[in-house]
Amino acid sequence: MSDIRLENLTKRFGSFTAIENMNLHIRDGEFLALLGPSGCGKSTTMNIIAGMEKPTEGKVHFGDREVSRVPMGKRGVGFVFQNYAIFTHMTVRQNLEYGLRMNGLPAEERKRKANEMASFMELTSMLEKPTAGLSVNILQRIAIGRSAVLEPAIFLLDEPLSNVDAAFRSVMRYELKQLQRRFKQTMVYVTHDQLEAMTMADRIAVMDQGVLQQIGTPLEVYNNPANVFVANFIGAPGMNLLEGSLVSEGDRLFVNFAELQQKIELPESLATATQAVKSRDVVFGFRPEEVELDTQPGGLTLPATFLERIGARTILHLGKDVCEVKAVFENDVEVMLDSQVAFRPAMGSERLFEAASGKRIS
Amino acid sequence: MQRSVIFELIRYCLVLIALFFAMIPVFWMISMAFKPIAEWTASGADLTWWPKAPTLDNFRFIFGQNTNALIVELERTAGRAILASLLSSVIGTLIAMVVGTSAAYGLSRYNYGKNLPLALIQLRLFPPLAVMIPVMIMWTFLNLVDTWWGLSLIYGIVTLPFSFWLMKTYFDEMPKEIEEAALVEGCSRFRVFTRITLPMMAGPLASSALLVFILNWSDYLIALMLTTREWVTIPVYMASLSSSMTGQLYGAKAALGLIAAIPPVIFGIAIQKHLVRGLTFGALKQ
What are chain A's domains? Predict the structure, then answer.
């Protein structure tokens, strides 16, 4: 068993808290992406799992084994670094065989395993070459191969695709997934790129400022963000968020946007959910992909300020500053700049958050 | 295209001119080493670029063989001085490199001893003469004067800051992920250092060692103060090559100078690959 459990994990560097009381259970054989902006603590979390850093408080368990005090060489994890960390004074083969040699495998076995991994990673033709002059794409392949050849039960990847070029990145996304299917390791993948997290991960753990914000499948995180941060961070562009306050008229509940001097009615399910919260200040959210343009009453109206046409999609910017709303359309949209555009979120796509805590109301 | 050919031509001409000026003294030394006494004591129009009657007399003289032309009797021969220089410079370089590299690695990787870098360099903050008098007294007290080990030790100490500072910058530049990658695969700290870090540092190590060796090899002041007879080094010995009858023995000095130039040149050629490659790590792209 090689599930990973982080218990009340806290890491401080002097007065700076990198991770705050984090609890996370990574299931055996799962591909988990640790996603967040730079400095959110995701790499520190990874380093603690690997044993490169010691937690200030809290425990790390691999299966039934508590490994908090086990040195990194004894944890049996594979680690791939953002900057490859290739031993440049060795050939490709020597790099691939390095860990096997450390584990005292006989030469023949090493050779067989290295050959096998080389063919899987498409490195066979350059096995005997020195690594010094190879391209970054190849170096990252070697680095992944070097860790994978040990068949670690836990495989940690720290932004492995950040430095390689875009075309290669999409190839590697596919291959990493293949690699995991084949060896069935527990994979933890640190990234700030939500596309990587969305496409590869079974579950995504979103972090910000040292705090775990949400954990869930890619679709859960996308459709039902736990709070304002996740709503805004996931998706490109992120969720539209408008600050407003709840007002009721008869038995109908509205969100009133004071700055826009407009209001929008809440669907019944959300209206019921609001009964559990005290504060009337809320954030109203909806995905840019789920905006419908219509002229019927009941929606919002904002001026069109900017149009971004990016081939298959067009992003329409409405309003500005705190009242900015983005709407994404396939191909083109027939809207005149500076004209008033009436729109409303698609039925059931509305999300509501508490203004003070940022938590979703559901 | 036309323009770049002209540019290249000018560039090569400038390099040749610079080389010409740099090489004249060297050429003069080589030429003089093979001149008989009559030619290196000549003046004015008698002075020639090439030896008119090339001879090995100067070499024979410094190694103690009697020559017809040089009637001066040598107290000591050059063989002993060459041995002294080789021994003290090589061991001094070893001491400086081993201690400097270890200290640099430790300081670069662990967060301790923040004041050590400055402490190490303070020996160099004073004029050498001010430092050397106390050292001379200490060395006398410790019975280290005029011994090869005493000289090696002080060479190791005074060149330590160079090896330390050079290696420190190289270690700081080496990404720690490379070592962590090996550690994670079950390598011990010591093994990482000897099998991963040091081999990757071959270039920096070699070029630092060359610099330290040249510093030791060409030292005059320290050897002058800490040696008297037995372990006089080449530079000090060279200065003593004069006589009341003929004055400075330039031919003999040139011959010894030529011999003294050989070890650094050989060392330099041996590590040329590293000197050119320098620090072109391919392991990391930030």
Answer: 4-223 (3.40.50.300), 233-361 (2.40.50.140)
Are A211 and A9 in contact, with CB atoms under 8 Å apart? no
**Pick from A217, A228, A240, A236: nearest CA to A343:** A240
Which run of H or of E encompasses A139? Answer: helix A136-148
Q: How do residues A158-212 score in pLDDT, each as one tens digit?
A: 999 988 888 889 899 998 998 888 888 899 999 999 999 999 999 999 999 999 9
In chain B, the residue whose alpha carbon lies closest to the alpha carbon of A103 is B186
DSSP class of B76: S
Q: Which residue of B has its CA nearest to A143?
A: B181
φ, ψ of residue A251 in degrees (nearest 5): -105, 10
H/E segment holding residue A219: helix A218-223
pLDDT at A278: 84
Please give the span between the terminal C-alpha atoms of chain A, in angstroms, as a whole number.
36
Residues of B in contact with A85 (CB under 8 A): 175, 177-178, 180-181, 283-284
Helix, strand or coil, per DSSP, at residue A288: helix
CA distances from B72 to A215, B69, B101, B256 (A): 93, 9, 47, 16
Would you say A344 and A294 are in contact if contact means Cβ atoms under 8 Å apart? Answer: yes
User: Choosing among B185, B195, B281, B285, which should be mutated to test the A contact, i.e. which has the most A CBs within 10 A?
Assistant: B185
d(CA A230, CA A95): 39
Q: Compute the mean pLDDT over every residue in chain B, rounded to the nearest whole number.
A: 86
A97 min Cα distance to partner chain B (Å) = 11
